[in-house]
Amino acid sequence: MPCKESVQPGTILKTNSPVEITNLMHEYKEAIRSLWNSHIRKHIRPDYQTSDFYKFQQIQILLLEKIVLDRFGERADQFTTLSLQRLGCIWLQLASSSITELCLEQFEDGKIISGRWGYPTLPYNKLACHLEWIDFFDWEELGYMDCHYQIVVIRDAKNHPELEGRRALIEANSGKYFFYNGNDLMAMA
């Protein structure tokens, strides 16, 4: 993936080329992990309400906007939760030698079973596609957050058109992140 330049803090960059943002995404991931693990998780009451976690998701969206998206003049306020929506501008590039497997979101009767991930897994190096980043993921919603996985959407899967638009889990430290808000996914190759 060609990388025109890396983004420096405090700058707003307008570009039609992919820009590597790996360090910014790691900064974002550490910010949400630290905030949740050190300050919020221990104050969640036993009668936990969905609205409590929703409030933390709003903080996540604000952190993503301030740490990553602001540098490109992008906003994330239209999203109520990252993992159910798509930004369409953060992409993951795995190393070409990667043997990482994608764990697909499960379907039943042609419908997604939200929150159920499993087999069959697919080796990424055989898939020849683009991966659109959606959110970091942990199995235990209220436990310690380590963001070991991330949710991606499979895009431009020419060898497997049946996978187009499918969500998958992949290990979080398995590649580089790029900001690209263009329409030509070939620029991401």
Task: Give me the secondary-structure topology.
Blueprint: E1 19-20, H1 22-40, H2 50-67, E2 90-94, E3 101-108, E4 111-123, E5 130-137, E6 149-155, E7 167-171, E8 175-179
Antiparallel strand pairs: 1-8, 2-5, 2-8, 3-4, 3-7, 5-6, 6-7
How would you explain this protein's 3D organization?
The protein has helices at residues 22-40, 50-67; strands at 19-20, 90-94, 101-108, 111-123, 130-137, 149-155, 167-171, 175-179. The chain is of the alpha+beta class and 189 residues long. It has one domain. The chain has an eight-stranded antiparallel sheet with strand order 1-8-2-5-6-7-3-4, with helices on one face. Helix 1 (22-40) runs antiparallel to helix 2. The longest helix has 19 residues, at 22-40. The chain is globular, with a radius of gyration of 17 Å. Mean pLDDT is 77; it is low at 1-5.
